[in-house]
Amino acid sequence: MENSAKTTLKALKDGPFEVAMKAWASGSSSSLVGQLVSEAKNRYPDEGNSEYLAEIESIKSMGFTALAAASDTTVSATTTFFIAMSLYPQVQKKAQAELDRVLGFGRLPGFGDRTSLPYIEAIYKEVMRWYPAIPIGLVHKTTEDIFYKGYYIPKGSGISANIWAMGHNPAEHENPDEFIPERHLQDNGLGEPELKSGFGNVSNILAYGFGRRVCVGRYFADATLWLTMACVLATMNISRDSINSTNESVSDEDLKKNLEDYYTDCSLSHLKELPGVKVLPRLSKEELEGLFDQDKEI
Ligand code: HEM
Question: How far apart are CA 115 and CA 198, in angstroms?
Answer without folding.
Answer: 9
